[in-house]
Amino acid sequence: MATGRSGIEWTEATWNPVTGCSKITPGCAHCYAETLSRRFGWTQQPWSPANAHANVRLHRERLDQPLRWRRPRMIFVNSMSDLFHELVPLEFISDVFGVMAEASQHVFQILTKRHERLAELAPQIEWPANVWMGVSIESNRWVERADSLRSVPAAVRFISAEPLLDSLDGLNLAGIHWMIAGGESGPGHRPVNERWLLDLRDQCENEGIAFFFKQWGGRTPKTGGRTLDGREWSGMPKPSRQLVTV
């Protein structure tokens, strides 16, 4: 999956200059990207740390793809990987950021679970205003990822609490601009508790943070719908600048 329209509710397109990953926390257990990659033969082995060298691939030939998209859009970077995976060298990450800076008509959304490497490399990267940076937080065990994110000079900092596996009552949202929350989908999905979601929604409303409820989850992403407390929540952060029409 190189690039194209996205079925992910909070973005418009995906761009995958890196594919393949390795699982590091319980939130990775039922990874949709691994399921798709193995189903279509893009990778042959499970996404375990032992197989990372076989599964993680850099696609330099895909770097210029956003430059050919003239209409401004939201682009999720590496929906099939993690840009801050330890096997992705800083040089390649910098090249990705260089393309994003040049493709200033778009907004790019990056999401990682590797918060420590993100914080380590962030000072060595030029952060254009059209890049939004996020971390995944599935339980209180990983709320420290928000601390690492706060050190990153991105125009928008966001959290993806999906799949939400526990209450995030220990989460500090200072310096965060956007929250995405949702349940897990797939054959072995783990149910989400409504109270966990409502607590996050309330915290975001109290602190003026945009809240996006993606899904209840279930057998498929669409199984439970997107209605929470009687309505859909599709909050988006305000971009730091207007998208440029080319």
Features:
single chain, two-stranded antiparallel sheet, alpha/beta, 19% strand, 6 helices, 246 residues, eight-stranded mixed β-sheet, 22% helix, globular
Could you characterize the architecture of this molecule?
The chain has 246 residues and is an alpha/beta fold. It has one domain. It contains 6 helices and 12 strands. The chain has helices at residues 32-39, 52-55, 90-102, 115-121, 144-150, 194-207, and strands spanning 3-5, 13-15, 18-19, 57-58, 74-77, 107-112, 131-136, 156-161, 178-182, 210-215, 227-228, 231-232. Strands 1-2-5-6-7-8-9-10 form an 8-stranded mixed β-sheet. It has a two-stranded antiparallel ribbon with strand order 3-4. A hairpin with a 2-residue loop joins β11 (227-228) and β12.
Overall 3D shape: globular
The description of the largest β-sheet is: 8 strands, mixed
- Mean pLDDT equals 94
Number of domains: 1
**Cα-to-Cα separation, first versus last residue:** 26 Å
Helical content (DSSP H or I, runs of 4+): 10-25%
Class derived from helix and strand content: alpha/beta
The run of helices and strands is EEEHHEEHEHEHEEHEEE
Low-confidence stretches: 240-246
Q: Which value, in Å, is the CA radius of gyration? A: 17 Å
Strand content: 15-25%
- Please tally the helical runs, counting DSSP H or I stretches of 4 or more residues: 6
Tell me the quaternary state. single chain
Strands of the widest sheet, in order across it, are: 1-2-5-6-7-8-9-10
Q: What is the tally of beta strands?
A: 12
